[in-house]
Amino acid sequence: MIGATVRSGLRPSQRIFQRPLIQPQISRIRLYSTDQPPHAKVRRSIFHRSLTVAKYTGYAGLSAIFGLFVLGAGILAHDAFTYNDRHVERVPINPLALHPERGGPKNLPVVKVQVDDEDDEEMKRLAEKPRLVIIGGGWGAMGVLQTLYPGHYHVTVVSAETFTTFTPLLPSAAVGTVQVRSLIEPLRKIVARLRGHFVAGKAVDISMADRLLEVEIVNTRGVKERVYVPYDKLVIAVGSTSSTHGVPGLEHCFQLKTIADAQQIRRRIMDNFELASLPTTCAEERERLLSFVVCGGGPTGVETAAEIYDFCQEDIMNYFPKACRADVSIHVIQSREHILNTYSEAISKYAEAKFERDGVHLITNARVSAVTPNHVIYTVRKEDGTIEQHSIPTNFTLWSTGIAMNPFAKRLTDLLPNQVHRKAIEVDAHLRVKGAPLGDIYAIGDCATIETAIVPHFMELVDEADKDKNGKIDFTEWEVMVEGIKKKIPMASNHISKVRELFELYDTDADNSLSLNELVRLLEDLGNKITALPATAQVASQQGKYIGRNLNKLSRQQAGLEARGLSDVQEHKATDSAPFIYHHLGMLAYIGNAAVFDIGDFAFTGGLAAMYAWRSIYWNEQVSARTRALLMIDWIIRGVWGRDLSRL
Amino acid sequence: MIGATVRSGLRPSQRIFQRPLIQPQISRIRLYSTDQPPHAKVRRSIFHRSLTVAKYTGYAGLSAIFGLFVLGAGILAHDAFTYNDRHVERVPINPLALHPERGGPKNLPVVKVQVDDEDDEEMKRLAEKPRLVIIGGGWGAMGVLQTLYPGHYHVTVVSAETFTTFTPLLPSAAVGTVQVRSLIEPLRKIVARLRGHFVAGKAVDISMADRLLEVEIVNTRGVKERVYVPYDKLVIAVGSTSSTHGVPGLEHCFQLKTIADAQQIRRRIMDNFELASLPTTCAEERERLLSFVVCGGGPTGVETAAEIYDFCQEDIMNYFPKACRADVSIHVIQSREHILNTYSEAISKYAEAKFERDGVHLITNARVSAVTPNHVIYTVRKEDGTIEQHSIPTNFTLWSTGIAMNPFAKRLTDLLPNQVHRKAIEVDAHLRVKGAPLGDIYAIGDCATIETAIVPHFMELVDEADKDKNGKIDFTEWEVMVEGIKKKIPMASNHISKVRELFELYDTDADNSLSLNELVRLLEDLGNKITALPATAQVASQQGKYIGRNLNKLSRQQAGLEARGLSDVQEHKATDSAPFIYHHLGMLAYIGNAAVFDIGDFAFTGGLAAMYAWRSIYWNEQVSARTRALLMIDWIIRGVWGRDLSRL
Questions:
Q1: Which of B83, B90, B638 sits opposite A326 (nearest CB)?
Q2: Membrane-crossing residues (chains A, B) (predicted)?
């Protein structure tokens, strides 16, 4: 029977559905044979029990079908109402929206009025509110947009992509475990809650003195045009690009940061398999085509390698020539000693053991020195210190090692003299961009880093703490200063919890007070101990929500101030009270039918159960019910029919 | 309340879910007021009845949830089994598969052995069977592949696209009502049932004497290579391209024949709306961007226009500036007097009235004379015979008027001297390509046309019928000839049903017999009356199934002949008994929340109900349960959350 199903070309997974039809019969024949073995009774009860189970499963199935039918009817009835014959009359458009005035340092059109600012009464009222401009449509921007109350700001989102992407599942989308459309939600639908505006463009420059953001728009003839979008508050959430580490040939690599990347990767993977099965492809070329190289052993790299492995095991195996499956090789090149090195050690070990078992080739302590169209060349540092050079023939290289600054972030830091960080925009504890007009510009997510150096605040801290102005800090004054430090650099809190020990450690002359020299040394060491927040979705999302809450608070305060006839000069004082604090909720990663979690002090690794936990966590994080439903459907579809093998 | 929901940015369709929460309360207040109106009792019973309905809906909902839960658990349990740790050992590959011998007229590699021919015992046995090569992956190819019994042929499918497409829903996919991935099924999964092979390449030439098909393959370096794929039976199902009618500028038009076309159209539509909402776009340009022109009033053109209209009404309306919705214009340019002119008149009228109501601009009796990047220029013939020239500014033009020959079909007809048809390969009543070695090559679908001329068979028919060899056909002989005609040109059957009338009509000298001159005139007139089969999915599918059944029969006969030690010289006689007969099952089209059917003599037009009927017919036609599930899900998702607005 099984031979027959194989012959008829069914996927082995489909056979499961056929079994119940045949097996009960067979068991009955065995059960009632004349020479019953001693354990027949036990078997029989198992048989009966399974009959009962089957009966109830049947009931469940029936009620499922009935329920689904009713549900379906309801949905179709609802469907009928979504078709409509509404007609739109010509709407009034402010002439300024059609022919914007020019201005600003570069004399570009200034978008003071949007096309839809006079669409209805609500829009007209919002047009009077402070202009909040958000650059980017990722996790940070989502955090802000989902936290803001409607009605308080004239919101404009500027982003080249018209949708927000659920980035953690991009590796899944890259092999088709989930569809790309299940990971995205149109930004227009999200801004609609705030009756905000969306501009499909790229922020390229800024004039902070005039509060004008310069946006590049590709017009209908494909020509790039620039306009100014005025702002009162600006939130920069532009994300980051991949770090090149100065490696030549990265143009031959894929990245995995956007939906377009995932689509390209999927196409290339299918291309490689189709080419490998062509009659003209020689054995050597087939091996090169089916060699997948991932540079970087962080979560993205590891998950992509795991997804490619899954895809080969579950789908390629069933429908491509066996030679294709046999020739597949997956390589992960990691510069550190372990993969997933930001996770706990148990997790790294688990992932490495899993890859070892699956035959995924792990190359640690290695540096990629060049990428060519056909090879990845890397060097490995041996334990005796010698360096060996290797090369892997490949037609697929993923580059996912670290982040670098986005061009707009770079431009902004160039404009501000006190921005010296190489990889991100430095912000203060309230996520306000350092050096920009206070309270005007915020930066969040991958493009921002919260300052960790305390020394620049030295004079201020001393001024505040040194009550007797004797140029020395005694222990009481030190306690005051500790509070000041915690406020300014909240991330230092963990490192100055032992107030007395720290004081005594740095009071080298033991005069029961810290001289300014001793203090500088203390603050320097302290600053060095603080590690920056990782560039993760979690951090960006929390920062976005923080900004959203602050903006809500601000608009309430503003309303109060206006009621009392006051202006907003003191706004930055008002929000000074609560700096941003990051709450680490754990990390997770998918490693081929298994998942790993690192939640606080608790690390958890495991197989299918963990994978489902991993899925459910991501499922909860979705921005909309739509993507949640789509994701669930994708997972079910994959379970039942496997991944789509079409090269699209 | 409704004002509030609108303000909070919900789509109007979502409001439906909120109503039941509020309305029963309101009705109760009205119902129990002191001055009950006379019809209060009726209202009350409606209220109670609706409560009962609500109760049962609640039960249904609960059982749905329970059922779904059990279903979900089952699927997840099943899911667990789809992950596997199977490993593939190096498989033996025939050296001939790796280094194919060269041969044929152009001395190219001949793929005698495929890479997976020795994957297992079944494959090895199939490698000995007659080689059936199918070119194309559309409706015709599907018909063959789904009808063939496994185990009788060594099947190879040659197609540049790796999947088959459900073409009738391409207009839906072009605006995102359904997802493109829901319309496709990988060819590898379909060939898997027959343990066949798939070659991702394009047929470019053929050597009929050597039975070698020349296939162009794009190799790993993007270079085009050619190989010979040997065949014993060849089925040509390459489809058609769009007819240009010699109009200049068609490179600025979209077509809608493939998934890639649908994706490009969707991108362009979203592009147009995004560009139209940009602050830099002037009013004139916005109108051009939002003007959609469809050239061709056949089903594809009409359905695409209807889908674009739906998309604007249901999705654009809710999330784009009102100015965008107000400026949308949709134009359909048709060369005939009516759209859907192959359908019954009632249907054309209904569709035209619907478009009229929706404000879709219908331009009939018009010819497109040129397309520029920004305009469509067309001429209209007035009733008084004068010709007017008009032009519509647009950024989207769809070209869907008629079909033309695919390059491979062209090449084949050039090789065969008796192939004179301009638009397709001429085949006989058994779909065998005219002039090719008999029984070797079949052509089906859009690329083929069944011969309708009877005169070329004149001598044969007379020989067969003129028993007394007197050079005249009397009525008894005429009856024999009619049977002969029905066999050779089955499509003539309807036109020669009145045997006696026809005989008397053409027996001009009333000598109770037809002279050869009279006969030629009769057969000529008869041939002209027969109309060729339309280039539809239905015809292609039926032809494919016919070929599949014939090939099955042939392989059984072959096995019988071999058992009796005979060769296959007589095979074309064996299948001569039953020519292909087309059974018209009706035509249908979607026209914006409404559908039209033309089933035999019965024409049916209507709104939502017809639309659901339309959906269910297409749903039944799906090639796999997977695409069926995906389509249903797409329709539900659209009903609940609308179409995705992301520009991807």
A1: B90
A2: 56-77
